[in-house]
Amino acid sequence: MNAPLQIAMPKEASASPKTYRLLIGGKHVEARDGRTIERRSPGHGFVVSRYAQAGAADVEAAVQAAHKAFQSGPWPRMKGSERAAVLLRTADLIESRLEDIARLDALESGKPIAQARGEIAGSVDIWRYAAALARTLHGESYANLGDAMLGVVVREPVGVVSIITPWNFPFLIVSQKLPFALAAGCTAVVKPSEMTSASTFLLGDLLLEAGLPEGAVNVLAGYGADVGAPMVAHPLVEMVSFTGSTRVGKLTMAAASDSLKKVSMELGGKNGQIVFPDADLEAAADAAVFGGFFNAGECCNAGSRLIVHKAVADDFLAAVRALTAKVRVGDPLDDATKVGAMISTDHLAKVASYVEAAAKDGAAIATGGAGLPSNAGQYLDPTIVAGVRPQMAIAREEVFGPVLSVLTFATPEEAMHIANDTPYGLSAGVWSGSIDTCMEIARGVRSGTVWVNTFMEGYPELPFGGYKQSGLGRELGKRAVEDYTEEKTIQFHRGRRTGWWVG
Questions:
Q1: Whole-Å CA distances, 462 to 84, 117, 449
Q2: For the packed helices 313-324 and 281-293, what is the interaxial angle rounded to 10 degrees?
Q3: Interval 425-436 mean pLDDT
Q4: pLDDT for 359-372, tens place per residue?
Q5: 143: buried, middle or exposed (CB in 10 Å: 19+, 13-18, 0-12)?
Q6: Are the CB atoms for 269 and 427 separated by under 8 Å?
Q7: Is 186 marked active-site?
Q8: Which of 300, 398, 438, 475 is catalytic?
Q9: Does residue 502 carry a pLDDT above 90?
Q10: Rounded Cα distance, 220 and 323, in Å
Q11: Of 240, 211, 2, whose CA–CA distance to 92 is shortest?
């Protein structure tokens, strides 16, 4: 057995936990019933944060504040250029606090600090892109309806939006939603995960500093049953934007259906990288390791299935194993770390159970598969499971951990069948030197994103979302702001109207 990981205790371990109060109506307030949540750092084991724990009364106050800000506040009535200016100032403030935000996310989620910095930098870019869309949002006009008629289609903000975000990318995912809602003129109530709320609370402060009117954004920490459910069901909420598991997404959609709220769902994935013999196999092997183990595999876009042509499967698996052996697992605050801590001990056990079940079902654990001993925190060895068959749970269900399942194929048709044979359709990758092969796979795989000879790259300009049970709607892209609007048709008639009783 390898020596236990030695995790250095950061300065925060010897200080009192940072405390965060709810943000409601532009004010920082304690929860109505005085409850709090303590967050223990998954990479270091100490209590890093303490949040006020919201309940139903706090949800009511936050929704009312957002509703008031929408009904009578200045935000929806500002010029697009004025809203853009606030979003740009917010982006600048995020950039100025990049290291602070990255450290909060690394401490609370266990992700490597170097990765967290990249996520915050990407978030800055998204906020700036959303600011541009605030100025370009527009409707349509129709002057082809006859000499006496002019039709105008305008886009209006949908209203109060409930935004619910997960623990795996605390700052990045709220940045894929909130700036676009604000660009449209909406107001919002935001519930980050109860395990990673700190950076979203800091974002709330930065928005106020940037000049966002009070009540336009409200931030609540709490659990799904106490906070998420009433945020979804509240009659004054017009739209729900949710990122999380498919299971919880289905429950959220069902709750929203009672009042026919608009919904946007970014859910799970079981994403395959398909590797052909004529690919750049060195680059593909690097992408396979990156896709499988980035963010400890706690990523909806993880390339958790490696679908390899039988002609190169053995050699390719050997190359992937060799690269996996070089992946540095350990202290999230170490700049050299590639894979940090698992979010919780319960989640680690769940991920390990998938590996154990696959082994019992005849698959072979090529490397990893067990928790890594450490003096603090919880860590899982990056794992490769070979000999996986398409019907196994590990090949069909979202494991959400650093586990790479290896399947093989003989023909492009078989590869596409394996790729499509899951309930999900979020993303996929294809590796080949043939443009014909790449186009065939890219067109045949039913997923929202297909990467060709690369994997898991993203840009604000490109829409993101999935087919099937991977979600509903798209985030990012030039139409992202439109998702937070309603279309209104206005018809202008010139001159005297004629009709039933008017000659």
A1: 20, 21, 9
A2: 50
A3: 98
A4: 999 999 999 998 99
A5: exposed
A6: yes
A7: no
A8: 300
A9: no
A10: 42
A11: 211
Q: What is the mean pLDDT of the chain?
A: 97
From the candidates 108, 119, 194, 266, which is the catalytic residue? Answer: 266
Report the pLDDT averaged over residues 177-187.
Answer: 98
pTM for the full model?
A: 0.97
Task: Give the mean model confidence (pLDDT) for residues 172-176.
Answer: 98
Judge whether 266 counts as a catalytic residue: yes
pLDDT bracket for residue 1 (50, 70, 90): low
Q: What share of the chain in percent tops pLDDT 90?
A: 97
Q: Which helix (H) or strand (E) holds 385?
A: strand 383-386
**Residue 352 corresponds to which tokens in the numbers above?**
């390990």
Structure tokens at 291: 């896709």
- Overall average pLDDT of the 231-260 stretch: 96
**SS3 of residue 272 by DSSP:** strand
Tokens of 343: 């979010």
Hey, how many other C-beta atoms are within 10 angstroms of the C-beta on 262?
Answer: 18
Q: Give the whole-angstrom CA distance, residue 297 versus residue 346.
A: 15
Name all contacts of 119-122 with Cβ < 8 Å and 24+ positions apart.
Answer: 119/169, 119/171, 119/172, 120/94, 120/171, 120/172, 121/95, 122/172, 122/175, 122/458
Residue 17 burial (CB count, 10 A) = 18
What's the burial of 204, exposed, middle or buried (CB within 10 Å: 0-12/13-18/19+)?
buried
Per the structure block, which two tokens stand in for 273?
Answer: 């990288």
Q: Which of 439, 473, 467, 466 is nearest to 453 (CA)?
A: 439
d(CA 84, CA 177): 15
Question: Residue 303: what pLDDT?
Answer: 97
